[in-house]
Design a protein that fits this description.
Belongs to the PMEI family. This protein has about 210 residues and is mainly α. The chain folds into two domains: about 1-35; about 35-205, Invertase/pectin methylesterase inhibitor family protein (Butyryl-CoA Dehydrogenase, subunit A, domain 3, Up-down Bundle), CATH 1.20.140.40. The protein is built from eight helices and no strands. The chain has helices at about 5-35, 40-50, 55-65, 75-110, 115-150, 150-160, 165-175, 185-205. Helix 2 (about 40-50) packs antiparallel against helix 3 and helix 7 (about 165-175) packs antiparallel against helix 8. The longest helix is centred in the middle third of the chain and has 36 residues, at about 75-110. The protein is elongated and about 55 Å long. The relative contact order is 0.14.
Length: about 210
């Protein structure tokens, strides 16, 4: 008959075995994440698991950034961090360009003495886009912090939430034929969306 002392010893042994297996699994996952990987391999993996990632664009965008040649970007985790930093750069750049365009466009409307309602509508659209990109940049920075801490699940949630900025901004201008030349989201907005998808794809592979 098993005594209380023997019972406790068995429980301790089983807990030790379970803890050892858990540590081994974590170490294996960490090793896989830190294994050397090229930009091409990373982009291929992300494009196969994430529909928003285009392989050719991914390779071109990452390859053109000098930071992709650094040692820290030599594995999946490092590339996910880099892609997120690039998405932050694009969000900040797009927000800045929208702000500049808003100021020029509103001054033009005032000089042309166009209807107050038209100017108010224009201001609303620009402000909407600025809010979207400002919020996206904040989400991306939070995602970057979680990525660095290897809290991948939370990082992916934040990256996914930041994807909607470009689409929401574009939607604000739909149906406005008179402002077609003022739409501030053509090239910069599109590139931001692509980089945000790459960051999410890389993070998903690294997790």
């Amino acid at each position: 008959m098993m005594t209380m002392r023997h019972y406790r010893a068995v429980v301790v042994m089983l807990l030790s075995i379970a803890a050892a297996h858990e540590i081994e699994a974590v170490e294996e996952a960490a090793a896989e994440c830190s294994s050397p990987v090229s930009v091409e391999e990373a982009c291929r993996g992300a494009s196969e698991t994430h529909a928003g990632v285009a392989y050719d664009h991914c390779v071109a965008a990452l390859g053109a950034d000098p930071r992709s040649k650094e040692k820290d970007a030599g594995n999946m985790h490092g590339l996910a961090v880099l892609a997120t930093k690039m998405a932050i750069d694009h969000a900040a750049s797009t927000e800045s360009k929208i702000d500049d365009l808003a100021e020029l466009s509103l001054v033009h409307h005032q000089e042309e003495e166009e209807e107050e309602a038209s100017s108010a509508d224009l201001r609303f659209k620009f402000n909407h886009c600025l809010e979207q990109y400002g919020g996206a940049a904040d989400l991306l920075r939070d995602a970057l912090d979680n990525l660095k801490a290897k809290i991948y699940g939370k990082a992916m949630e934040q990256l996914a939430a930041a994807l909607g900025a470009s689409e929401s901004c574009e939607d604000a201008w739909k149906g406005d034929d008179t402002a077609i030349d003022l739409v501030p989201v053509a090239d910069h907005d599109r590139e931001y969306g692509r980089m945000a998808h790459i960051a999410l794809g890389f993070t998903h592979v690294a997790a």
